[in-house]
Structure formats: structure tokens, C-alpha cells
Amino acid sequence: MKIKIDIDPAHEDTPMVTIQASEWTEEVEAIVRHLKELDKSEGSPKRLVAVDGEGSVILQPSEIDYVYSANRKVYAQMQTKTLELKLKLYELEEFLTNYSFIRFSKSVIGNMDRIDRFELSFNGNLCVFFKSGNKEYVTRSYVQHLRKQLVEGGGGRGE
């Protein structure tokens, strides 16, 4: 792959990327996906801040087992505690995609890097056990997507 950068004050304020290729390849698709992620993340939060009693705590995504919504609030479930987050679930999903989080259900986003094992439930749901001992369920409509991400080694980061 060749990279050519042309910096000139005469160009518009908004950067433009042109990809030239003889055919659509996985490499081109990966580049486009990465550029779209960069474009989306410009307006999104850079850090996760949770409420802990009277104060605020900065969280590392790698410490979180899963994020869920309940009673119109959003919480981060960690190894031994649950902290409230001030972002909406869809905002967190967008932010956490780069950290191997994927949707488990309408109200849960799970960290694939913290999964220990699975068990199939009789109703078609998947019970996910995290390394911390926590567990959460993947609803039937999201099981196929989770399986695909596990097989491909994806989850958001470097897909």
C-alpha cells in the first residue's frame, strides 16, 4: 500500500481522503471502516466517568464486565461493584465498540475480553460467565452476532 499526503493551505478546512484501488479488497474495507470509526469518535466522549457516592470515578473499559440500563439509568458492572454512568446506552455502545464490547440485548453491552465461558439456556438465550464471576444473558436475537464476533476474533477493535 502506498500513502500520499498533500498538505496545502488552498485545500478546504475539512480533510478529504481518496482511496485508489483496482478492486474492492479486505484491506480497502478495513481502511474505510477505520476512517468511519475515527469520524464517529470525534464527537464522542474520550473517558468514562462514573458516579460513586458523592464523587466521580474515571473508569477503564478493560475493568468493566458489562454495561446495562435499568430504571432509566445506565450502570457499569465491574468485578465487585456497580457504578452509575451519566451517558445513554447507545452513546456507550458507540464509545465501547473500540474496546471489544458488543450488544448482548436491548439493555446490555458486554465486554468480550472479560468472558470466561458460556452456557446455552433452554429458551435459546446464552448465559455468559465473566472472569469476575458475574453473569449476564445474551438474548436469542444477539447470539448469532456474538458467535460471529467470537469466530472472527472481532468485537470492534481491529475487525
From TrEMBL:
Domain of life of the organism encoding this protein: Bacteria
InterPro entries noted in UniProt: LytR-like, LytTR_DNA-bd_dom
GO molecular function: DNA binding
The keyword Transcription regulation appears for this protein: no
PROSITE patterns, alphabetized: HTH_LYTTR (PS50930)
Keyword DNA-binding: yes
Protein name per Swiss-Prot or TrEMBL: LytTR family transcriptional regulator DNA-binding domain-containing protein
Lineage summary: Bacteria, Bacillati, Bacillota, Bacilli, Bacillales
